[in-house]
Amino acid sequence: NCDQAHQNRRPYFLLYLFSSNMQSSHFKWRLHATPQHYYITPREETGLQNYLQINRKTHMCREICPEPKVLKGHAITFDIVAFLGIVKILNSAHILVVREASLVGMIDDAEIYKIEAVEVEPLQQREVDPTHTYVSNLKKLMTSGFYFAFHYDLTCSRQRNWAKTLRADLCDKPISETAEERYFWNKAIYDDVHIQGVDSRWLVPIIQGYIWIKEYHVEGNRLTYVLISRRSCQRVGTRFIVRGVDDKGQVGNFVETEQMVKVKSTWFSHCQIRGSAPIFWQQKGISQQVSITREKDLGTPAFAKHLEDLSAHYGEGIFINLLSKSKQNEKALTAALEDQFRILNPKNFKYRFFDFHSQVKSQHYETINSTLINDLRKTLANFGYYVEEYGQQPNITQIQDGVIRTNCLDCLDRTNVVQSRVAIQVLKFQLKSVGINNLAIIGEDVSGTPYVGSVHPFIDNVKNIWADNGDALSRQYAGTGSTTANVTRTGKQGFLGILHHGIKAINRFYVNNFEDSQKQECIDILLNKHSKTTSVGISAKVKEKLKAREKDFCRKKNAVVQLVTWNCAGNAPPQNLNLDSLVLLNQQRYPDIYIFGFQELVDLNAKNVIKGTNADDVALWNRIIETSLKKTGKEYTKIQSKNMVGCMITMFVKSKLKSHVHNIEVDRIKTGFGGNVGNKGAVCIRFDIYDTSICAINAHLESGKSKVEIRNNQFIEIFKKAFVKESSNGKFDYSVEDHDIAFFFGDLNYRISLSYDECLAYIKLGKLDQLLRNDQLNCLRNKIVHLNTFQEGQITFNPTYKYD
Q1: Residue 155: what are its φ and ψ, rounded to 5°?
Q2: Alpha carbon 607 to its chain's center
């Protein structure tokens, strides 16, 4: 009885009844809700004739016809603009639809929309809803610059859209099947629908970034100006959480910006890209100190993949680095970037260093044109731009086969200023090609490059559009508008610009430390990557089936891992120290992976606890290890080291395997004095080798025979905190228990619960079993959460500390 069922439901659907400020003619979809199903009525122009039915319990999706009887008077119905997919939040699924959208403009005959409001509706009702905060934050995220179109692929540049028409396997397919995954933000949440064979026309791809479309009259010509920025969703996140490159060659804050101009019947298109420096680096803590997180030669494969990907998409390129060589933070990053170019010496991409802050010192922003842009004019002309004579059968007379890639630290402020100057230079080429007077429109300075002080209304509009673009991208990545918007708009910063720069810098600090983690979680939810989300619905069943058949498509290899742990008791290594006795244990097959864990490299006095481990000490220990490794006759590569006061972990692998080691992360967990001091705690490393995930935790726990409870709590704390990002509420990249193999080792300080004399007596009698029965760690194995999941090798040696 549907009427009875509706009477018994919570009054949740009252939320559906609010009105929209969008014109009713734009509403082409309808969403119907019953206790058992959601139904979506399609847009007429899609060509879809059926209803889309989504089972609220099983998540089964199917197309049905004719209209279900239950919709006639028994369903809650409201208007929607688009269906975006099924989003997973924690252990529940929700339908994501667009409720309000504003018309940005038209490209050709296609309407381009910006999302103004969404609804996130649960498939199953719950008395207690743990997803409320996530839903609220996700709604907020979806209004931060997302765009869509039903009849134009916004994920592709105009040139790539044209290239698709040349391929027989792509030209007649729906946009959602040919969209570029790099910019297709809702692809992951459509998977549950797509794998069930539902027509792809139900889905509309969305991009995040910025879009401007407007018509202008210039020198008697009607001109359409379009600017589209597409943020990549492959390595995406907020400013301090997502930096640098990953093992796939994907970088943080990667954005393609396309400037399109239509004059008469001719379309021009030109693309630029920006992205974080493709180095493994991060900024953490209040000081925001840049640290390079991976050895030079281990970063090269990812750097190479990044350039290969760019070459495949754009052909040749110029890599413009706007960082400084004098600022400490940026100096290390520039050095690492230039090292990679020296190692690879890529043929398709050239490197150009331009110290932005040094060049524009004392407000001399005109030097950007007279130096950098002037130098790039010939390159820009050679790279070209896309030219299309628009009509029923488009005539392509030129394509772009090179790209400018620009980066600064955040790829926001300095980058946007330079990209706007590049765009105006390209615009100059394009207008000249159709006979429009450049001097009247753009003006020229003595070097023949675009003049910053132009007062022509059109070019002033272009500068303002680029400034708005910079503001939008900055808000999406850093939480505030661009700090150099005034420079893009007017060519100078000015007093107010400097004041606004300071205010925005303070706001960024607040946002980055107190809001970014929530925003990052919402991004991960939208991309179906959230670490706390449980697989539900159809995709969960597919994963379950795949897991059951793992042996059918997996190959296994054997690997030897050797762990070494040593408490150095605060002693510096003597000059003649070698570790041969530890390194050369297994001469029949030397290990594929060595992991060394040291404790008390320095005395744990107050001075050293504050100072921490000296970098020279770490380097010395690594050299000692490397000396012994050379005696194996095998080549080993250091993967990573991490230290904290007296603790250190360092890892080496056989060099022939280093290309198969990826997703390397290190961490340290302080447990001394309530978690504030690193005299006790752990240093950790995790990595994937082939498709197996491994983590190793080198711990130094509280000493003292009676401090068992403290040690137990420290173990639990380390287990929970390892590999949690530093943020206001933490972001799990990995958890210890999710790894295929986890090692917990070090100086755990668990003792034998017998008197000294009793221990000596059992040692003399060779009764190890009696000692092991009273080993505190053994006694607690089944009482401490997570500890019982670990296995320990058989103990065949006598106790050492105090008994040797």
Answers
A1: -75, -15
A2: 38
CA dihedral sign of residues 571, 575, 580, 583:
positive
Neighbours of 484 (CB within 10 A): 26
H helices present in 97-157, as ranges: 132-141
Is the Cβ–Cβ distance between 27 and 181 less than 8 Å?
no
Tell which residue, 407, 401, 405, 422, has the closest CA to residue 316: 401
Q: Do the beta carbons of residue 65 and residue 96 sit within 8 Å?
A: no
The proportion of the chain whose per-residue pLDDT surpasses 90, expressed as a percent, equals: 57
- Interatomic CA distance for residues 723 and 717, integer angstroms: 12
- With both helix axes pointing from N to C terminus, report the angle between 413-433 and 374-383 in degrees, rounded to the nearest 10: 60
204: nearest Cα among 223, 215, 189, 224 = 189
Give the residue from 394, 403, 450, 449 showing the smallest Cα distance to 259. 403
Neighbours of 2 (CB within 10 A): 14
What does residue 59 show for φ and ψ, rounded to 5 degrees? 70, 10
pLDDT digit string, tens, across residues 547-593: 889 888 889 999 999 999 999 988 888 878 989 999 998 888 999 99
Q: φ and ψ at 585, to 5 degrees?
A: -65, -45
Render pLDDT for 172-204 as a digit per residue (tens, 0 to 9). 889 999 999 999 999 999 888 888 989 999 999
Quickly count: other Cβ atoms within 10 Å of residue 559's Cβ: 17
| Tokens, residue 149 | 């179109």
Pairing of strands 386-389, 661-672: unpaired
CB 689, CB 556: distance < 8 Å: no
Closest CA to 405 of 386, 428, 379: 379
Asked if 259 and 391 touch (Cβ cutoff 8 Å), the reply is no
CA neighbor of 723 nearest in space, from 690, 741, 697:
697
The closest alpha carbon to 418, from 447, 446, 452, belongs to: 452
Q: Are 281 and 296 in contact (CB under 8 A)?
A: no
Among the residues of 515-614, which ranges form H helices?
516-526, 538-548, 550-553, 580-583, 606-611
Q: How many whole angstroms separate alpha carbon 690 and alpha carbon 620?
A: 31
What are the distances in angstroms from CA 135 to CA 78, 93, 120, 249, 628?
19, 11, 7, 32, 55
Contact 118, 142 (CB under 8 A): yes
Q: How many CA atoms lie within 13 A of 193 on its CB side?
A: 29
